[in-house]
Amino acid sequence: MTEKRKEAIALKYDREKDVSPRLVAKGKGKIAESILERAKENHIPIQEDASLAELLGKLNINEAIPPQLYEAVAEVFAFLYRLDKEAGKKNSHTLK
Fold first, then answer.
1. What are 7-50's pLDDT values in tens digits?
2. CA–CA gap between residue 25 and residue 12 (Å, rounded)
3. Which of 13, 26, 54, 78 shows a CA-CA span of 20 to 30 A to 62?
4. What three-state secondary structure class fits 26?
5. In whole angstroms, what is the distance from residue 75 CA to residue 52 CA?
6. How do residues 42-57 score in pLDDT, each as one tens digit?
7. Residue 25: which of 39, 44, 11, 15 has the closest Cα?
8. What single DSSP character describes residue 59?
9. What's the whole-model pTM score?
10. Residue 94 in contact with residue 8, Cβ under 8 Å?
């Protein structure tokens, strides 16, 4: 059986500049591992959602999240908001 390659997506949302979150990094295999390692080094929470990562992986770097994915991405940001509130800080976030 073949193991599926790890995939990672990084999103960023600046409410003063962006209409919706943007994809700022994506990759599979070693690139995904590097994205996840950088997130850990910078204490950025990681949410695992392979289906969403696969959908977002079809976007280009710096592309805004399309309206049809708003609800799914909003759930991720709600999760991250709760973590930020608990930790008392705000960060960029990574999804894998």
1. 999 998 888 988 888 999 999 999 999 999 999 999 888 888 88
2. 9
3. 78
4. strand
5. 11
6. 988 888 888 888 899 9
7. 11
8. S
9. 0.74
10. yes
